[in-house]
Each structure stands twice: as structure tokens, then as C-alpha cells.
């Protein structure tokens, strides 16, 4: 059977071995031992990424399992999120996955579909968008990766703490996507189907524009459950599986 899976926002970290275990179980039960065309990882796969030169037992074990997925015949694709946007080809190669642009249109069984992490559509969060513009430029990642590893780890710790404090003081609406940005994304890519993560608000949204029905599927995070989208030529279905 033709099928593809989409996941996002696992935030893998040594502090949450239950998430890693759930992810590995997902690979075993849904991907490796089944006939799957592709696995798409739409960002924030890891809680933090300070460079491909910093490898841990977690990152190595994840790379090994993803390589198993590739060897089973399933292509693995990755789009950067706001937590792991400086992941580069070295790690991608070790995990046998292909890095994609931050927005890309795929042919999902005959339906042109734009896939992305989704943070660029949270346009009400002005503070974050300023940082995003800077951090996705050519010079900022290059400068970061030129710094010593210990300093990058310190910056990452400070950034996570600052992010927590910033989000705690913002209304939920500010942290979500805006309808104008969503419709503009549909218009930009001339598609009627969109899949993204980032907001941690899994749902399927429908819009009307120029006489067409537009569908936006938001993937869930993995803090308390496994969350994924299974797509076949017949349907797309969001699934949430509580951790064992």
C-alpha cells in the first residue's frame, strides 16, 4: 500500500527517554516493518542542536535507527525547525536522510502539498520573527558554527531560557499562525494542501479562497503522545498515540 508519514516537534532530549522510546517504537511498528514510501520530519526533531560536531549517544542512536528506515526502503526527509535549524549535511548523511528547503511542494499521491515547519507563519510574534530573519541568514549560522562548542552550548542554554520567559508572557494567539500568513502561503505555492508543525496544536483546518477548498493539517508534539499524519492516495489521517 502506498503511504507516507509526517511527524514534527518531537523535541528529542536525553531528559525525556520516554519520547525517544516512543519514537523508536513508532519506527518499528509503522515504518520499518511496513511498506512505506517516505517519512517526513518537519522540524524541532531535537530539543536543541548546536552543531553536527556535537554528537551524543542520543543523536547517534537516532541516526542509526533512521538509517535502518532508509535501508528498509523508506526515504527520510527533514525540514529544519526553530530548534534544529543549524543541522547540516554531516548529520543528515549519518542518518541517511535528505535535507529539504524550509518550504517545499511535494506531490502527495497526486495532490501538490506544501510542507514546512510553520514558524514563519506566526507573524504576530514580532520579536521572534526578527530573530528568525537573522538566524536564517547566511552569516549568523556560519558565525555560530565557527564558535567553540562550549560557547555554542552556553548560547543554546541561554536561548532556551529566554524563549521560555518570552513565551510565558505572550497570549496564545500571538504564538499561533495568522490566517493572513496561511492564505499567503497557499497563494505563494499555488496549492490547496498544507502540512506543518511548530504550534503544538494538532488539527485539520479548512478555508475557502477563490472558489477552492484549502486544507491545512497541523501536526502535534510528542510531549505526552506520539503524533503523526498518515497519508495514502485515499486520505490523510492525524493519529495520536499516548505513551505506554
From TrEMBL:
UniProt binding sites for Mn(2+) 2 = 44, 82, 117, 198
Query: Annotated pathway, please?
Result: Glycolipid biosynthesis; lipid IV(A) biosynthesis; lipid IV(A) from (3R)-3-hydroxytetradecanoyl-[acyl-carrier-protein] and UDP-N-acetyl-alpha-D-glucosamine: step 4/6
Catalytic activity field? UDP-2-N,3-O-bis[(3R)-3-hydroxytetradecanoyl]-alpha-D-glucosamine + H2O = 2-N,3-O-bis[(3R)-3-hydroxytetradecanoyl]-alpha-D-glucosaminyl 1-phosphate + UMP + 2 H(+)
| One Pfam family hit | Metallophos
**Catalytic activity, EC:** 3.6.1.54
Query: Which controlled-vocabulary keywords does the entry list?
Result: Cell inner membrane, Cell membrane, Hydrolase, Lipid A biosynthesis, Lipid biosynthesis, Lipid metabolism, Manganese, Membrane, Metal-binding
What's the name of the protein?
UDP-2,3-diacylglucosamine hydrolase
Per the UniProt entry, what species is this protein from, by scientific name?
Answer: Pseudoalteromonas shioyasakiensis
Its organism's taxonomic lineage begins at: Bacteria, Pseudomonadati, Pseudomonadota, Gammaproteobacteria, Alteromonadales
Amino acid at each position: 500500500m502506498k503511504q507516507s508519514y509526517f511527524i514534527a516537534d518531537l523535541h528529542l532530549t536525553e531528559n525525556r527517554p520516554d519520547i525517544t522510546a516512543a519514537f523508536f517504537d513508532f519506527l518499528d511498528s509503522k515504518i520499518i516493518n511496513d511498506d512505506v514510501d517516505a517519512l517526513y520530519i518537519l522540524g524541532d526533531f531535537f530539543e536543541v542542536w548546536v552543531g553536527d560536531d556535537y554528537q551524543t549517544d542520543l543523536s547517534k542512536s537516532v541516526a542509526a535507527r533512521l538509517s535502518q528506515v532508509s535501508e528498509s526502503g523508506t526515504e527520510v526527509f527533514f525540514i529544519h525547525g526553530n530548534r534544529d535549524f543549524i543541522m547540516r549535511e554531516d548529520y543528515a548523511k549519518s542518518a541517511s536522510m535528505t535535507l529539504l528547503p524550509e518550504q517545499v511542494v511535494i506531490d502527495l499521491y497526486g495532490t501538490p502539498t506544501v510542507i514546512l515547519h510553520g514558524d514563519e507563519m506566526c507573524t504576530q510574534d514580532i520579536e521572534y520573527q526578527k530573530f528568525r530573519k537573522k538566524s536564517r541568514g547566511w552569516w549568523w549560522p556560519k558565525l555560530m558554527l565557527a564558535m567553540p562548542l562550549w560557547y555554542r552550548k552556553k548560547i543554546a542554554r541561554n536561548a532556551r531560557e529566554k524563549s521560555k520567559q518570552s513565551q510565558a508572557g505572550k497570549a496564545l494567539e500571538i504564538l499561533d499562525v495568522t490566517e493572513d500568513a496561511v492564505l499567503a502561503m497557499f497563494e505563494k505555492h499555488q496549492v490547496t494542501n498544507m502540512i506543518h508543525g511548530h504550534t503544538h496544536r494538532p488539527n485539520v483546518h479548512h478555508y475557502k479562497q477563490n472558489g477552492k477548498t484549502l486544507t491545512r493539517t497541523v501536526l502535534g508534539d510528542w510531549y505526552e503522545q506520539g503524533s503523526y499524519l498518515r497519508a495514502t492516495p485515499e486520505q490523510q489521517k492525524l493519529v495520536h498515540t499516548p505513551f505506554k
